[in-house]
């Protein structure tokens, strides 16, 4: 009706092709509202304005403003009964009072009232703001027989709404809150159940400005209530006060540009028939419009808005509470959480008996692989899997009334107006009734459930007029011919399945237990159902409509049963009944004689009677329990989980004696623990200690029409709403509740059973943080603080140190003293971290120490940590520590360094950022600098990047830098003494350590090689470089073109490859090599020999042989040195002048493969060459010799000797090299014959070394060499430059005396080798 008095009857018009239209004839006449003719029967003049009308069964109750109640028969006669004057109705606080006082003064009338069938009375609101409940004392409805009760504290009531299912009366108040009352069964008094009110925390700017409550409407299924205020706005709450949606805050209240919206004023609202829609008549009062200059907020025409809702399956089909999926149901679609949780849980629920729990079923959304997907999948993305319900089914059966999903989350069944249909998530196909008359002939009354492959449902057959219980097999066609039908004596209201039992609650208040079992009748499979037990509940249940859910569980108060009689633990122990929000438990009575079932039953089992019911909890919305068993997590799996609306959740937790000891008689065996969560719970993942839920989320958008039109349309006020998945950890709440109750032992058992969960550290941290915040910020002193207990509890776990420091870092500094007073001194905790080798946590403690202690203490601890980090090769941490130590020194301690990340680069691995920026600049051109001088003329420019800043040598922090340098030098010295060259390279590259200048200083001290053999062995091990072996297959030496290959030629030719690929740009080459040292090595990194840094004559000598060879083989252009290229180059060098015909014999292929086998990894090769380069520059020639031996390249030895001859080298070093090489020779003779061929090749050089040593021994004995001074210039002798240079081409052919002498020696050596190895001449192609 409109304000002008016109009356309209609207007819819905659907667009073409929508599921609501159907092409069959007469469909429109059947489906749409029939044509109505309204004619007047009678006029009753009640002589006062009518305030409220209520239909009461056969009568109409009318309240008028003169304080009278008129009871009118629907036939239009007053039945001769007089109107009841409210002043004569006695009111009291409860029904037990002798006679209550009447309302006391005249002029009182009823402003609003609503009849409650299940309480048999009226909830009323009087015009003076008082509220009450009027009930007939007997069945007669007269003034003498009416009695009222009223709460004394409500004086500002405005409106009322009644929830029949939960027996609740919601009174709206002028203050903006809704007070929800229930009637006490024993005294009849009105008890406050809970309040619906906005909190200052959530709605700080509006919570007390909403005005009076205007309208309250319960949904048709009584599971939610919607409230609106005078100020405007709309809110949605669950039965017991959990807030689901409110349009007064967030995106509802503000536009995307930040301006505030005027809230929607609602003048009337009503729920659609199934509760999927809320129809709202909305507009704006003009009272605010003068003050608002904004054009968009001018008063507008009232409009009709339609809000669409999704509801949880638990609200309609409560048998879903033992599942671990979240299923939401809309009028024509289903939303389910994407099956990841079902993958994780499916193995557990995959069979009826726990012994089969290892069977893993594959879920449709598995990523491949059958493992449980773990935390990321459970908490994973927030999207839903949306299943659109078959339009063929919806055409005649819209809307959806029930739905259910199976245990594995793979099949869904839905029920509409008639029949049902089911859908497979694996095949993405619907299965409907083939015979439509069968579908239209059944009405599902009590819901449906899955049992393995079967769908169990309670329905009414229209043709037979009979209540039935039916079981359909999922895999067969949907037809009654394949169904197992059991007749039922009364209408079924609720149905649930537990293991292989079906529990049915009927309209005659009886609970019936059926056993269900699989039967294979030849080719077809079916299930059969037998009655096991009937339990009448009519004594305890006033009205069958009040029962919200009935579940069979294995929960019992005696948890010891599971230990004594494991078989009975599998059986159904108790019935849980939710009666209008009261959770009632009936256990089996094990005390009396046991009644045996009739022997005729095919499955005789003992069925015990049930004890009288016990009330477990009040205000219960949902109950979760599981039938699985897990010895490790018994606390969680044998618990009962309750959702209690606004007061959060509760868990009824079993308490187990430790180590199977006898329980104390005074301890109860279960305990009810309340806890709060921030989401509305829809499913409990028992083992994972998670609650899954859904939250309403909003998204702002600019409406297109809002820009064009001067007036914003009504729907433009609302943001885009989406329902999102949410999950929450609850374990810390339970542990804390147990600790509060001095049940630390139980808390420890529970925590240890969950310690493997990936978010367990977070649980401990949350618990510590919450207790700390509460106690440290409390205004009043706490008599019995919990923090010491929690701290002691956390010390039981290895994560104790991390938990404390993470909690401290996330808490403000003011609370630290309180925290560390409970957990211990941070200095002690720091030392514990060091002892446990947990350096990252120790670094976090350092930041705390820096804030709580004087700088000297933090420096002392930082030094300890720095040394340990150096020792362990934690380079990222070392860089942080250098920064930290400098900050302490230069007074920058106000800004603590960030905690190092948990993942540092591995000691030998990638991430050497320092050398990405490091360049070695050649300060002078190569031509005019002799080789001897060159190595010391380089300047090392340090990087300016964040990872390795050049340490500024200001006077202010020079002491600090000196302190850090001393530590670095000490570490470098240790590494060299222990022959850890690989670590030394990493250390220098990662920390920007000036290795060359330090090595120059340490040449005669730490950088000496004392034990050549030990160093060789250690390097082979560290760089994964294989020791050389001598092939057993080379009996016949390979010949090519009639020329015999000497060992010298082979070795030289093999080593020629690497040196043929020289690049002159030393800057780029070293950067690339250092990058390869850092582990970021691609296949195309250029490798450069250290010899490139020597004089121009040398370089010419290197390159000229290659250029002479011609371009056919383009050896000179090869910039990419991998093992294969060097081998091939080596082979080409062996070939005589004829380059065009290149053919490899079998034996040469063997050489190549052997050579490949005798080389280490490419990365090691690059790293060794880089070290060689460094040592050569620093003048540590003994190390160059060792690396040359490992690489087995004569060129390196040549070059080192060239340096020795060209410069004044310490005689001691020469002597050291000489003795070292002799030791290597002895070792090779006894332990490692693979080295002998190479040692024979370099024998001439060694002899030359002996000559140099003898020459220099006398002068150096008299005059000690200065270590740091640059050696005198001396130009290299021509024959030396030739020998060091000509290794790129064929072996030198000049007939110098030394050359011919060395030839003779080699021939002699070869002869002696052939004698010592009579099996045959060994090939020397090992490199």
Task: Describe the structure in your own words.
The chain has 1327 residues and is of the alpha+beta class. It contains 39 helices and 51 strands. It has a five-stranded mixed β-sheet with strand order 5-9-8-7-6, with no helix packed on it. Strand 35 and strand 36 form a beta hairpin. Helix 11 packs across helix 13 and helix 34 runs antiparallel to helix 38. The longest helix has 20 residues, at 958-977. The chain is elongated, with a radius of gyration of 45 Å. The N terminus and C terminus are likely disordered. This is Guanine nucleotide exchange factor subunit RIC1.
Shape call:
elongated
Give the helix proportion (percent range).
Answer: 25-40%
Count of discrete alpha- or pi-helical segments spanning 4 or more residues: 39
Number of separate strands: 51
SSE class: alpha+beta
Average pLDDT taken over every residue: 76
- Could you tell me the radius of gyration in angstroms? 45 Å
Sheet bearing the most strands, described? 5 strands, mixed
β-sheet strand percentage? 15-25%
Cα(first) to Cα(last) distance is 101 Å
Instruction: Tell me the strand order in the biggest sheet.
Output: 5-9-8-7-6
Low-confidence stretches: 1-5, 21-29, 286-299, 340-378, 560-569, 595-604, 897-953, 1034-1077, 1079-1141, 1260-1304, 1306-1327
Helix and strand arrangement:
Layout: H1 27-31, E1 50-56, E2 59-64, E3 68-73, E4 84-85, E5 91-92, E6 110-116, E7 121-126, E8 131-136, E9 146-149, E10 157-163, E11 168-173, E12 178-183, E13 190-196, E14 213-218, E15 224-229, E16 234-238, E17 243-246, E18 265-271, E19 277-283, E20 303-308, E21 311-312, H2 313-316, E22 327-329, E23 333-337, H3 340-349, H4 375-379, E24 384-388, H5 391-397, E25 402-405, E26 411-415, E27 421-424, E28 429-431, H6 436-440, E29 442-451, E30 454-461, E31 466-473, E32 484-488, E33 492-498, E34 501-506, E35 510-521, E36 524-536, E37 547-553, H7 561-564, H8 566-570, E38 574-579, E39 582-587, E40 614-617, E41 622-624, H9 634-637, E42 640-643, E43 649-654, E44 670-675, E45 680-685, E46 690-699, H10 704-708, E47 720-729, H11 731-740, H12 744-753, H13 760-776, H14 787-794, H15 800-809, H16 816-823, H17 826-835, H18 839-852, H19 855-872, H20 875-889, H21 914-917, E48 919-921, H22 931-934, E49 939-941, H23 958-977, H24 981-991, H25 995-1001, H26 1012-1022, E50 1039-1040, E51 1043-1044, H27 1047-1060, H28 1066-1077, H29 1096-1108, ...
